[in-house]
Amino acid sequence: MFAWDDISVFLALRRERTTTRAAAVLGCSQPTVVRRLAALERAIGLTLFERSPSGLVPTAAAGQLLPAAEQVERCVCAFRAEVDLLTGAGADVIRLTLLDHFELLLVPVLRTFGEQWPGVDVELLASDRLYDLARGEADIAVRGRHLPNEDDVLARDLPPVGWTLYASTHREPCRLPASPSEVPGHRLAVLEGPPAQHLPAYRWLREQVRGESGSIRCSSFGALRSTIASGTALSILPCTVGDTDPGLVRCFPPPAEFRVPIYLLARRASLRRPPVRELFEAMHRFFTDNPVVLTGERE
Fold it and tell me: For residues 185 and 64, is the Cβ–Cβ distance under 8 A?
């Protein structure tokens, strides 16, 4: 026989692909994960993962079992949500996951919310990690690019985020490109890594540096921002980042083709708690009433 805990180990391993990362997600030791996986495979008489130098590789059997395991997980999460609602567990904490730096944009909303709900703490999870709302890892989220298709999650469109080219405020304005067509020939910095590969602004920027010498490659937004502010190179940033940095100046208005869709999400079970519902609605009102905060499109 096997229990929900065994299925949770299977799902963690399927998502994380190593016993060490799965153990961190589950909050237990790595040997415990190895032992529980072996026990589950013995109980069901199937091999779920093959070992490889790069990590665990799910077998065909694991692929067939995944949808059923995820359905069990959703039912367990729904049960826990009902228990929390009935017992009031976690009622004084709202977990808000958002893109790094977005917490600065939400200062007015969080200040007002704190005055209205002094007994409720908002836990900010500002990170590139995608916390799973359906599994109860967070209550509210701000996400970009892809609209989730989950019955357990409510999604609302927000104004798209604008992106444009920035330079250091110490650069002479007359020497900055006034339009995208004037960018070639300038020293540029590009962002590396998976996120940049899917963003239209960085795809365009890579085309500008192709064949050019002297371009700089940065591994994070922080490094990119510092490179621009130092005057070493020009680069593209979201207006939510560049417009809030006094050390940076726009080269030209954000082009429409660089826009990235963005969404406000909430776990439906969490929205049954009045404070969560109020914060969700307040965030939606703030961004829809002040679209320039996201789009960067000034009058």
Answer: no
Q: Which CATH superfamily is domain 90-160+260-295 in?
A: Periplasmic binding protein-like II (3.40.190.10)
Distance (Å, rounded) from C-alpha 260 to C-alpha 237? 12
Q: CB–CB of 96/236 below 8 Å?
A: no
Token pair for 62: 């694991």
Contacts of 83 (CB under 8 A, 6+ apart): 89
- The answer to whether 124 and 98 have CB atoms below 8 angstroms apart is yes
pTM of the model: 0.74
Query: Do the domains at 90-160+260-295 and 163-258 have one common CATH topology?
Result: yes
Spell out the domain ranges in the chain: 4-86, 90-160+260-295, 163-258
Per DSSP, the residues of 77-98 read HHHHHHHHHHHTTTTTEEEEEE
Q: Is 265 helix (H, G, I), strand (E, B) or coil?
A: strand
Half-sphere exposure of 14 (CA within 13 A, CB side): 20
Q: List beta partners, residue 237.
A: 164
Tens digit of each residue's pLDDT (9 = 90 or more) over 152-180: 889 999 999 999 999 999 988 888 999 99
Contacts of 207 (CB under 8 A, 6+ apart): none
148: phi > 0 → left, psi -120 to 50 → alpha, else beta; which?
A: beta
Look at the block and give the residue holding tokens 């359905």. 71
**pLDDT of 257:** 95
Instruction: Give the pLDDT means over successive 10-residue stretches in the chain (299 positions).
Output: 82 89 87 91 91 89 90 78 69 85 88 92 81 85 79 90 95 90 90 79 87 75 90 93 92 95 91 91 96 89
